[in-house]
## 1
Amino acid sequence: MATRKRKAEQGFQVGAALRDNSLTLVLLAAFAVSLLGQALTGWQVENREAVKHGGHVADLATYLVSASFLSALFENWESEFLQMAAYVVLTACLFQRGSPESRDPDRPEADEAETKQHTGRVPWPARVGGFVTALYARSLGIALALLFLICFALHLVASASAAREEAVRHGLRAGSLAEHLGDAQFWFESFQNWQSEFLSTAVLIILSIFLRQRGSPESKPVGAPHAQTGD
């Protein structure tokens, strides 16, 4: 009897953990599926181009560490972290009346007052005060900005390596990393993703003024006026 009860409690705890983390788990699963799809289809495209030009067909493991795959991978990650970093920082200082994604421009001081009404255990960096608390108060934006810079650097290195390999195949001079940083091709790769990220974020903010999604914290309540700002 006790064993059965213990198993039931363990099953409940597992179920509760899955429920409590379901959003992250589903997004990570979608990421894994998408990454696998990118790897497999990119590998096929790469080998198709190699066959077309009489080159060497690579196995999947070789392709996954190739400059072309890593360049495309970090190119996308870079734009996502830039979007998130900009979004977190800009929503802290700018406003959009009517959007649940914005602070209320008529009550900007209310947000600071509400931060003092904590429930549960306060994280230690928020308790110690001084520089530690000031840094912690901006840690989300800083972390996202650092992730952007890391991915930007990795994209630059991988893209430069891919450009050098392409130059060697065609008997051309391979440029340096600094030269590639100033090359239009590298910035074309970056800007084509950056613009789409900023557009999609702006569209979400505007649509959230007039449209609703019941149950989502990214939406105002269904009956809320369009002019209501914040959640």
Note: The radius of gyration is 24 Å.
## 2
Amino acid sequence: MTAALVHAAVLVATAQQPSTNAGKDANGNPLRRAVKTGHVSNYDEMKVLPYTLPDPLTLANGKPVRDARTWLTRRRPEIIRLYETEIFGKIPAKTPKVTWQAVPVRGIVAETTADLTRIVGKVGDGPDAPKISVALYTPVRARGPVPVILLLNFGGGGAPVAQPPVADDIIARGWAYATVGYEDIQPDKIHTFDRGVIGAGDGTPGPDEWGTISAWAWGVSRIIDYLETDTRVDAKRIAVHGHSRLGKTALWASALDDRIAAVYSSCSGEMGAALSRRDFGETVDDMAQNFPYWFAGNFQKWPGRWNEMPVDAHMLIALSAPRPVFITGGTGDQWADPVGEFLAEVAAGPVYRLLGKHDLGTDTLPAVDTPVITGDLGWFYHTGPHAATPADWNVFLQFLGKYFGR
């Protein structure tokens, strides 16, 4: 059986298999059992076995990376290829063209402070071509091009898309923000590769080709294509935000597109900002079993083989260097392993230092609700659930203010 057929078989099995819900532990954390490996979720730090992370500053041939040029021209492309081949899948060389149309609507956020432009991108030329709907909010009194925060949000496909809880503050700073519902780009459902941008392309992906996370990242870049044409937007200052699975997407989009000037990855957890080799909360086994369509078919190699994976979360974060990255976790979201997210940021620090930037400045987990934003890697561990909270957003705006000004 070919790798592509194996991937298809996994998708079918996933849709048919019984629930793997094993209840909750004494602290209310979800317990899941992986069918393939039998692994059950762990939340005990004493049961986290030692692990060794792959060195982002060692080339595939074993030679060290000692300068920025070697990182940018050799090591970074190596890591990108590993993620494309083994994790998220590469975006096909030929993808559908997106044609954008914009319609201004005055005074939606606040009658005297913001303009709204509704932008629709038609994906391909088919009669039923997918349409990506973007809402761009810009300050009315802006003088010249302004920075923009692009929110890759839940919703789309006819469902409403949420506003950021700090919308007024963003506009008051003289920045813009844009929102898009991720399901306008690609449905977040199994057996939907015949829809969205993947369906508008070459059909069922091969084992090293895109799953939905790469498709969503592709959509982010196509929106940036439009923003570069809008004279109200400073295309050199575009930040991207995503929460949970979309936090994973924001990190991968930034890895692929250096037009993204800053990243806010909220509670992105396993296969996002949290270390996979650290057995805590959600695991590779859970991801491969429950969300196979998010990834390349080759990702099915790695359940039960976390320590053999050629990459880990610190390398995904480091792919954005030297650009700033802000990561959050929540005390009520141990499933996403906030400690593992923090440790991944620490382990990405050597790449930032090599490129003349500042790391987190600490390798000790800070107290809860204590921002760490003095460097080019930012961290905030909020009290509360799996969410991008108003407190998170307020800290992110402080962090981003170092780069975007007012």
Note: The first strand starts at residue 21 and ends at 24.
## 3
Amino acid sequence: MIVDYKAGNVMSVKNMFEKLGFSVLVSSEPADVLKAKKIVLPGVGKFDFGMKSLFSLGLVNALSEQVLVNKVPILGICLGAQLFTKGSEEGMQQGLGWFDIETIRFKPFNGLKTPHMGWNETHIVLKDSPLFAQEQYLVDPPRFYFVHNYHFDNVSSKEILTETFYGYNFVSAFQRDNIFGVQFHPEKSHKFGMALFTNFMNVK
């Protein structure tokens, strides 16, 4: 299912999955989260709004039970992935805290412009990740579409899935067990995003 917490490009994600032949439910209901076999948490916008929305809709406990206890695979996209972290320099709210990671703003570097917007290469660090398995378009380095001012920081070396260069190297995706977070937008990344979504749906 795709979690609709009023913070993002839900229909773009839904359309990409349907283009691949997958039937997906879009819902804001905790009961649907508790029945889901796969979960996608997309997102565009402000960190504090995203967390407040998850709480107001009663989704935090349902997500934590399914993901942390029942080990249901979840894919966080952009803001959705940032919400997996402890918090963000963008706001004051605590994140879900599933990872000991901070979300920080891009550091000024040689006139670096933000947001980081457009296509960029992602270099695969965790070579055996199922998210990048057995797809010709995901041979290192695949290219994805980015739009963001903030990125992940203080990621454990064991949890770094991909890195990307924009002024300096930053972690653009992370993974632990059944939890996957990507800063880029697979739903806007054509054949690369289609391959990644297909792999996610095949995660056991």
Note: The chain has one domain: 2-201.
